Amino acid sequence: MKYGLFLGCNISFNRPDVEAAIRSVSPLLGVELDDLNGQSCCPTWGTVPSVDTIAWCAVGARNLALGEEKGIDLVTACNTCYSSLSEARYKMLNDAETMREVNEILKKIGKEYKGKSKCRHVAWVLYRDVGLDRIKKAAKYELDDIVIAVQPGCHFLWPSKVLPDREEDPFNPVVLRELCKVLGADVRPYTRMIDCCGAGALKSTNQEKSYKLAKMKLECIRKETDADLIVTTCSSCLIQLDEAQEMLRKRGEIDFSIPVLHYVQLLALCMGFDPERVAGICVTPRDEIISKIVESGRK
Amino acid sequence: MEEHVPAVINLTYLWKKEREELGEKVIETIKGFGAEGIEYCMQCGACSSICPLATTGFEWYNRRLIKAIDFGIRDELFDDVTPWACVACNRCVEVCPRNVNPFEVMFAMRRLMIEELAVPMTAVQALKSLYDHGHAVYTTGREARKKVGLPEKPPTTDSDEKALEELRVLLRNTKLPELGLFPMS
Predict the structure, then answer these.
(1) In the predicted model, what is the mean pLDDT of chain B?
(2) Do both B149 and B171 map to the same domain?
(3) What DSSP line would sit under A184-195, residue for residue?
(4) Residue A127 lies in a domain
(5) How crowded is residue B162: how many other Cβ atoms within 10 Å of its Cβ?
(6) Which residues of B touch A37 (CB under 8 A)?
(7) Is pLDDT at B1 greater than 50 in this prediction?
(8) B114 at A interface, C-beta within 8 A
(9) Is the ipTM of this complex over 0.85?
(10) Does one domain contain both B173 and B102?
(11) CATH number, domain containing residue A271
């Protein structure tokens, strides 16, 4: 199994511990990663997708072509990258004129995109290509007595028609829950599981409304699951639920603290990697949950 | 530019404006910006029932924006930030029973607004950062990468001048330079 590791901006600069985690776990799970040198922003929604469809597809196609040249698909741990690249590819595959115009632009930099390579999400690669059995065997620690609330995130689910891997019912997603359960966790459902975390453009436009969504979700998790840990597949949800939670505490709007991890970080911790490297960046404290995993969870 | 949508909408005025001033219907303009399905909308409200913008109280969320565009309202919406708050979650696309693709309507509105420079500075900064660094989100401080034992620069345009120049050439060959948002030399 070989993939081009597509990093995206948030993981490269804000949460490189997620990058360290994915790089750590991959070789032990039989996944070979290519660096895709020269990759750029996916492009994210607030940039060229807000300007023009062709510009959106051209930036996406250049990134996808870096994999296609090597005969491999991309893999990302960021929901935004996953959906922006998937939607760009869908547009190009379903409209010959868009594909032609994009390739006219790519020709000026000596590139071409045929539509073969796609961008996969790391959670789907783990679930489908690596498999739950292999994940279970690779884990050194078991999450006994640890309650998890999952946050799959919008761009992991919709619009399902453009995504390379689809939940059977995107309004009742199971993949992330299964990935957590195989590590031994008690994964509890909650009413607002598929609600938006409030990150992205909503946050840069109106902080108050962004916090309102984060607060609704966090309070629901607290009340309905009493989770020890929130696990997500998205770098934006990770940052939002971790940072907005701290701000809500500072503002006296909530009085609890639930650590947040990206799934690959949780997996890396269970596989015994150094917590400082694979989960060392956060504002909502993780020390307690990490000790609990490492000290009391040995198989 | 009108500052807001008036309390009473004068359909005759809007109809005349489309014919005499704009030269095309606003809905046609929006279709041209990528929202080809907008006319299939029957105002059922499925999209607004699950829209995070509607939940949090933004004024011109998907269903309402579609209706306003159908009426021929255009400039009066330029001071409203709702399209720029859209998280592109695509729930609306998933639930729409008529293949309207409300997400593309929100983004077509952005594409029209950006031509009129009705664009928040955060979006301009993200575009400029994409052009300057190849990343919309970019920081010069690399303590975080060093802390987790990774090379200071990721294997992206950040560590590859040739790739960055390639991306810049690509962007200069899109519609972006025409907009005059920032210098692109």
Answers:
(1) 95
(2) yes
(3) T-EE---TTTTS
(4) no
(5) 11
(6) 155, 159-160, 163
(7) no
(8) yes
(9) yes
(10) no
(11) 3.40.50.11810
Q: Calculate how close chain A gets to B28, using CA atoms only, in Å.
A: 16
Q: Which of residues 136-165 of B touch A (CB under 8 A)?
A: 136-139, 144-145, 147-150, 154-160, 162-164
pLDDT digits (tens, 9 = 90+) for A65-85: 999 999 999 999 999 999 999
**Assigned token pair, B68:** 């306003």
Burial A227-258 (b: 16+ CB within 10 A, else e): bbbbbbbbbbbbbbbbbbbbbbbeeeebeeeb
Average pLDDT for A10-15: 97
Q: Cβ–Cβ of A277/B167 closer than 8 Å?
A: no
Tell me, yes or no, whether A36 and A113 share the same domain.
yes
Among residues A93, A121, A149, which one ends one of the domains?
Answer: A121
Q: Which of B84, B110, B148 is nearest residue A17 as measured by Cβ atoms?
A: B148
Residue B3 has pLDDT above 80, yes or no: no
User: Across residues B124-150, what is the average pLDDT?
Assistant: 95
Q: How far is Cα B14 from Cα A106, in angstroms, rounded to an integer?
A: 41
Evaluate the CA torsion angle B124, A157, B83, B42 in order and state its sign.
positive
Q: Is A207 on the interface with B (CB under 8 A)?
A: no
For the cut 80, the answer to whether the pLDDT of residue A296 exceeds it is: no
- Residues from chain A that touch B55, judged by Cβ atoms under 8 A, are 213
Residue B4 lies in a domain: no
The predicted structure's pLDDT at residue B9: 87
